[in-house]
């Protein structure tokens, strides 16, 4: 996404930049940056022209109450344009006027002429190149009204005489003003040259993402980036292909290979989303891959639990167990990613309830196939998988007839705080009926009973004779008595029970808040 920051307050200066957020990683190149404090500390140049001074004063007053959703008064518009092209006021004042024009956009179309005049003066050497850092973003904000400047922006984007931040600003403006022939040519050059700095290559791919189907002519160039060594660029390439829609169906096989084999989670997720974006229906191979994954999981689990490993030499058995454990973790991750993909990217509820609409029969078939797999996933050894499958069924409002209680009990009673919180969130996000509340209250009573039993056992442990305690201490290597061991175990159990009861109470409060009304 190319972001042109325009500040809501006329006194604040914005940041206009390329901001690529990659789940946990950000590549940010500033196109223009001036902090408000720097402006206050820098002494403003006194206007040498009385007309410019008067215009500045009028603009200062007008901008305090200017409604950017309405066309400005002709006098204010004239003053803004005069300040943009004036050499008799400080650059910060000119920048402020340019920002105001950019915010007005189509409500002040004549402002493009003033910005274009400054652009021409930069090219002729009458203005310093640094002026472009506020002229270019303002032109980009004008959109199609500034298309006539696209050729100049394209020239700046590849002119090595300009600093990289100015080149990036030109590319950002080309992308923000919408698809143009010059903009597509710039993006194509950026995609073709793999020796450019990462920031410029990222800017090119962001341009493809922004143009969407208007850039589908660049599909061959984008496909080559699916093999780039940078996982972020691979993910961006997949996202760009998804934006092409059905025009990119030829890329389905490449995206499928990326989804199955790419080592980066971000790239796999982007490929999966792109597959669903270019396909009117989930391709049948997804369900085949899911079934093959489940078959492999069953084989690995059987191998890990069989006695054949135990009969081998100790070190060899340990190595095989570790190898199988890694393989099982990878298979579980693939299962989880496919479930996340199908659960978040498909609106199952209409498919399950409305088969009369066009394509309804095919959708209903898809739903039946996947519902069987969602219900089977509830019994998975992985609680994360079971909770995800349960959430998909909750979201599709098809929980009736499903044995969800074992999954919820596993989640609320888990020793992992994250798993307990994830289970409680299901009650906070989705409505449950009164029967669920009754069941939860029964769980809470059971936990309270267990806590009382542990408290009742404490006096019998403390009554052990001192002589017996000393003998036990001598017999144990760690120096702890059995009484101390029991006390520590009881303390841990009490703490866990307290945490479990807190989770159940939180679930009950959520049910009371979002309870389904009685019929």
Automatic annotation (TrEMBL):
A matching Pfam family: HEAT
UniProt keyword RNA-binding, yes or no: no
Domain of life: Bacteria
Protein name: PBS lyase HEAT domain protein repeat-containing protein
GO terms assigned for molecular function: lyase activity
Keyword field contains Hydrolase: no
Alphabetical UniProt keywords: Lyase, Repeat
InterPro entries cross-referenced by the UniProt entry: ARM-like (IPR011989), ARM-type_fold (IPR016024), HEAT (IPR000357)
């Amino acid at each position: 996404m190319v972001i042109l920051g325009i500040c809501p307050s006329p006194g604040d200066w914005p940041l206009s930049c390329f901001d690529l957020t990659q789940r946990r990683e950000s590549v940010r190149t500033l196109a223009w940056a001036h902090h408000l404090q720097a402006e206050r500390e820098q002494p403003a140049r006194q206007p040498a022209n009385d007309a410019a001074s008067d215009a500045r004063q009028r603009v200062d007053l007008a901008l305090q109450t200017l409604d950017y959703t309405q066309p400005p008064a002709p006098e204010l518009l004239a003053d803004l344009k005069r300040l943009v092209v004036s050499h008799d006021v400080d650059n910060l004042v000119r920048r402020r006027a340019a920002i105001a024009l950019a915010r007005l956009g189509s409500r002040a179309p004549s402002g493009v002429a003033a910005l274009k005049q400054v652009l021409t003066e930069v090219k002729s050497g009458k203005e310093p190149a640094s002026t472009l850092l506020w002229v270019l973003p303002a032109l980009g904000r004008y959109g199609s009204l500034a298309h006539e400047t696209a050729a100049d922006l394209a020239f700046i984007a590849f002119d090595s005489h300009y600093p990289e931040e100015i080149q990036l600003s030109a590319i950002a403006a080309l992308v923000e003003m919408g698809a143009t022939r010059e903009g597509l040519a710039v993006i194509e050059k950026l995609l073709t040259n793999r020796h450019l700095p990462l920031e410029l290559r990222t800017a090119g791919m962001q341009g493809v993402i922004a143009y969407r189907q208007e850039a589908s002519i660049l599909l061959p160039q984008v496909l080559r980036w699916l093999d780039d060594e940078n996982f972020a660029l691979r993910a961006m390439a997949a996202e760009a292909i998804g934006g092409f829609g059905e025009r990119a169906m030829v890329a389905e096989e490449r995206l499928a290979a990326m989804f199955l084999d790419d080592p980066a989670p971000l790239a796999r997720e982007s490929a999966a989303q792109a597959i669903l974006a270019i396909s009117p229906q989930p391709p049948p191979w997804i369900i085949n891959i899911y079934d093959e994954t489940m078959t492999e999981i069953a084989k690995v689990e059987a191998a890990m639990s069989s006695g054949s490993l135990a009969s081998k030499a100790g070190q060899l058995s340990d190595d095989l167990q570790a190898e199988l454990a890694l393989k099982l973790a990878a298979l579980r991750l693939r299962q989880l990613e496919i479930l996340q993909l199908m659960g978040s990217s498909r609106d199952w509820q209409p498919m399950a309830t409305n088969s009369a609409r066009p394509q309804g029969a095919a959708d209903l078939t898809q739903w039946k196939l996947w519902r069987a797999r969602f219900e089977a996933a509830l019994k998975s050894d992985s609680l994360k998988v079971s909770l995800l499958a349960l959430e998909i069924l909750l979201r599709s409002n098809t929980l009736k007839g499903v044995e969800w209680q074992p999954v919820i009990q596993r989640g609320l009673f888990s020793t992992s705080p994250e798993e307990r919180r994830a289970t409680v969130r299901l009650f906070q996000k989705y409505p449950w009926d009164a029967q669920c509340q009754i069941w939860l209250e029964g769980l809470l009573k059971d936990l309270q009973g267990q806590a009382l039993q542990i408290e009742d056992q404490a006096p019998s442990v403390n009554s052990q004779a001192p002589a017996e305690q000393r003998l036990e201490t001598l017999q144990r290597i760690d120096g702890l008595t059995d009484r101390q061991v029991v006390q520590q175990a009881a303390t841990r159990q009490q703490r866990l029970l307290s945490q479990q009861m807190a989770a159940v109470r939180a679930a009950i409060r959520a049910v009371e808040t979002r309870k389904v009304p009685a019929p």
